[in-house]
Amino acid sequence: MSAVKGLKERLRDGETILCAEGYMWELERRGFVKLGEYTPEVVLDFPERVIALHEEFVLAGSDVVQAYTYFGHREKLRSIDREEDCKSVNLKALKMARDVADKYGKLMAGGLSNTTVFEPDDPDIAGKVAEMFKEQVGWAVEGGADYMIGETFNDFQEAKLALEAIKKYGNGMPAVITLVPYTEDRTTDDVPIEEALKRLEELGADVVGLNCGRGPLTMMPLLVKARAVCKGPLAAIPNPLRTTEEQKSFQSLRDPISGKPLYPSNMTTAICHREEIQQFTQDALKLGIQYLGLCCCNSPSLFREMALTCGRDPVLGKFSPDHSKSYLFGKTTKPHREKIRSFMCGDAKDIYISSNTGPMS
Ligand SMILES: [Zn+2]
């Protein structure tokens, strides 16, 4: 545990918590996670990459360093024949997160995620999943986590098991439990999302909410419904992806050119504009959401947009875009520059100039 102000105290005082998530996909984008397996062995094999990303998210404005233990449970590591590394992956991930959090005066969160083996109404599987959660919560206590995140649960029953493990074995650590909404407005064990969140809150989760699955545009309506029934702090951690009414989840997104599914290899095609992140952040703040972040396809530059919109002053704020100083889009444009601009942007050149949000500078 650290000496910095705790999660519950911050929430009680009406503060907003910014939590950068999405380590798995960002490390995949950088080449250090294998698509299909999605396992976090990078923690042991290239630890400096994980530390670097922790630091980048903190410098971009995250209040929390989330240990990269996503899919770090026994079941997933067994699938790559590294079950014997399970404990060391978890403890190493927690240690790195703790060190970065202490260096910058941030909170450190341990993490549980959907196990991918859960089956509703199957007591044997529930027992197996509960054991995996117990083990990971124990390691998080040992690793000095300030609180626990239980995330991307598509089944209410599995989320409940995670919450129970945190309450039982977490040594009093607060619990943030987030469900993943896909194309339907209910969990895959058929509980309406807002009802599932309400129940998790009643079961003692300190923060409930949504992470992953949907982008800002299609997550917001569910957040409005959740706000109407939940009493306590809500979490909103969408993917920064351009999901729509027709393609509500990021897994259902299609390539605008080929029409083929973008998931699971090419979602970066659909990354949100910065302005869309700003808009979502403003809307979430207006709705009274106190726990905000971005999930899969998050990056330091997009997370910085969220932090700046919240009125923060992140270290990386100094590198946020300013096209007024661009040699092509700035005010002191010479005729040849205009010609270059025209070659570059074609018909779009005047739009870029007037909006000052050129694609390159
Ligand atoms: Zn995600």
Question: What would your notes on this structure say?
Answer:
This protein is α/β, with parallel strands linked by helices and 361 residues long. Helices cover 43% and strands 11% of the residues. It is built from 14 helices and 8 strands. It has helices at 7-12, 23-29, 42-45, 47-60, 74-78, 86-104, 123-142, 156-169, 193-202, 216-229, 274-286, 300-309, 335-345, 349-355, and strands at 17-20, 64-66, 107-113, 147-153, 175-179, 207-211, 234-237, 291-294. Strands 1-8-7-6-5-4-3-2 form an 8-stranded parallel beta sheet. Helix 6 packs across helix 7 (123-142), helix 7 (123-142) packs across helix 8 (156-169) and helix 11 crosses helix 12. The radius of gyration is 21 Å and the shape is globular. The N and C termini lie far apart (44 Å). The model is unreliable at 354-361 (pLDDT under 50). The site of zinc ion has 5 residues, from loops.
